[in-house]
Each structure stands twice: as C-alpha cells, then as structure tokens.
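Letters spell out the chain; backbone shape is given numerically. Both lines appear below:
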Amino acid sequence: MSTDQIVTRFAPSPTGYLHIGGARTALFNWLYARGRGGKFLLRIEDTDRARSTPEATQAILKGLDWLGLDYDGEVISQFDRADRHAEVAHQMLTSGHAYKCFATQDEIQAFRDAARAEGKSTLYQSPWRDADPATHPDAPYVVRLKAPREGVTVIRDQVQGDVTIRNDQLDDMICLRSDGTPTYMLAVVVDDHDMGVTHAIRGDDHLNNAARQQLVYEAMGWDVPVWAHIPLIHGPDGKKLSKRHGALGVEEYQAMGYPARAMRNYLARLGWSHGDDEFFTDEQALAWFDLKGIGKSPARFDFKKLDNLSGQHLAVMDDDEVLAELDAFLAATGQNPLQSQQRQLLSDAMPVLKTGAKTFPQLLEKATFATASRPIEPDEKSAKSLDEVSRGILKELTPQLQNASWNRDTLEGILNGLAEAHGTKFGKLAAPLRAALAGRAVTPSVFDMMLVLGRDETVARLKDASA
C-alpha cells in the first residue's frame, strides 16, 4: 500500500449523541493523521434511515467542534453514495466474486433449522452460489459475496496482532438487498476505498467485520487499509461502560465544566500510553501518538483522573483561553454571558482563580466575589460570622483603608494591626471579611480579593456589611 499521505476517518452513525467511546475513536484518528501531516475525514453512516436523525448529526458535529477535532473537506453522507455502493456490487457480480441469491427467508430459515437439528454449522450456504445464470428466475434476489470456503483470512492488526479466521466460519454476506439497497458491510468498504483511507482505526467491536470486509477489498483488487482495532472503554468496575459510569455525550462533559484540552488529554490516555506520562499538551500528543502505544485491554473510565488532569490544564491555560472556554461553558449550560465589568474583574482575578479549580463551576464559585454585584448577599454559613462585634471591627477598618496604599504589604499590615488591637489573630477577622467581600465562607485569600476588587469596591462592600 502506498502511504505517501496518511488518511484516517471517523464514521459515526447519527442515531444519538457523540458518546465518549466515539469521541476517543475520533481523537485517535485525528492524532494519528494530524501528527503525520495526513488527512482526517468525517463520514456520517446514515444508511439506517429509521434511526438516523439530523439532530444526531448536529450533536456529533457540535461534539467534535467542542473537542477541537477539525476534519478535512466536506462531511460525507453514506446514504448519498448508495448508487456507488450498488455499482461496486454489480462489478463483483460481473467479475464472478458475487452472485445473485434468490433464496427466500423461509428457505434460509429451513436450512438453518435442519443444520441445527443435525448439529452442523448454521452459516447459510446458498444453492445459488454456483448456479447457471441461465437458470435464474425472474424473482427478487440479493447479491451475495462469494467468500472462499477453504483456507484462512488473516487480519494484520496493529493493536490486536495477527487475527486468523477460518474461511469456513465466514458466510457469503449480502452486499445488496432485494430492494437494491446496499448493506452497511459493503458501504463501509466502498466509502473507505473511495475516500483514500489508509488506516482504519476503530473499536474492536468491528474486528469480526474486518474479515468479511477484507474479502470485498480483495475481490475488487483494492489495497486493504492498515487495521487498528482499539479496545472498548469500561467503567471503574471493569464492566462495559454504561450511563451510570459516565457513558454520556461529550456535550455533557462540556456542561460539567471540563476544558476541551483536558478532555483531549484524558481521552488520549484511555487505552494509549507514552511511558508514564499522564499530563501532556496537544503538541506532545501529536508528536507522541502512535498505534504501538495502544493497549489490548479495555481502558477504565475514572472521573478522579479526569478531574486531576482538568485541574492541571486549567492551571496552565492562558487567561484568554480560560475566558473563551468559560463563555462557551456558560452558553452551553444556558447561563447568562459575562458582562464587560465582570469579564474585566475575572480577567484580573484569573491567576487566583485558576489554581485549585478543576472545573469551570469550581472556578466560577471561587470567582463569586468578582462577579457578584452590590449589595453582597451572604449565604447562610458566612452570614453567621457577621455578628455585632465583627460588624464593629469592619466599621473601624473602613476609614483605615480609604487612604492606604493599595498593595499586599500595606493591607497585611493594616489588618494584622487591627487584629492585634483587638487582642485576636487575623484568622478571626478573615471570616467576616470573606462574608463582606464575597458572601461566602470559602473564597480566595482576603488580600487577593481586595487587590482584585480595588479600593473603592472593597470599601463599599465593607460599608454595606457593617451598616
């Protein structure tokens, strides 16, 4: 096979959201192609008209967009290519690699019942396989691939190793139905060939399909792509990933507040490794990703690891990138966009907010002091610290701050001096200050908040709280 340019593809069925397993498959294909200057293509396998919906297609596109997985060219619709798939089936008929089968469903069922009764294989063996075309009736037929009956088919898989399947275990699969529509098994091969796909990286639930699909490549004299069947994702308990484990649409991870770059990092580590590296950038992933690093065992989804990576990425992201993703998070969750003054305060506070937060909701909770408007309404827990004594101390503090130099050293000196004058430690002052400035019991440091808010807003909030 010529591999002048690597071409990979992601080919989801539009029957629902882009789930986490599909997102990882897309990511692996994207990393492999983009890291080698190749093409990453997108095909929507929408031949199942009863279950395919435009809404699901949009959800898939939206999920890929959020994850930052850009694709080359137009989105290919498998359904729109039905005539081309049928053309290939007829070419195989002409070349003798396929045949018309006129067997009815009742006849096929009778064959299987008899085989089962005799303890034989129930793989259907059509009496029309070697029939003289002249004897063909004028009746509906399907087009079946004429699979070899002897020998073996070997799938040379970059993840699973060589997988050998005895040809007597393969049936003469249907390529065209009796109504002339192509089957999925044929369509996939024709589309991958016509799109120039060099590497088929997909879930290992397709491994059995590969043997049958490889026969179509061979029948047409086409290059077989490099196979790479990746293990599925399991839950923490080792069972197949389900919704209770976190088998959600990727848009739900955006709504939970994970940055896209953290999601890419985490998904890359689900089943692939580069030494002991856990945290890495997109640039590193593109440079490092290869098929040899993919393990054979199912990966286990772990929210704790995702949270940990998410926190690390938030800490090193540029402030502008955080704000841009924050905007997208607010929009995705139906929340009000940031006002210009809030955005400026958030931007000023970002060095304080990024450290320790693992998700955007956590970051916004830390940022309450910056996004809140006067008068600050303390929550139940922080309100308890605003007793009469505390209010009196805040009232005493306010005039000392009005003409002070607004830097950390000066502020620390004033607050520590006030605490000492009242025979207490600064820690005792911190709680009412948090309540006055943020309305919360848990906040960034008092000094960080005062420096971000500035003199006028700090003094105004303290006056409100001590009134």
In short: The two ends are 80 Å apart (CA to CA). The CA atoms of residues 256 and 359 lie 7 Å apart. The longest strand covers residues 39-44.
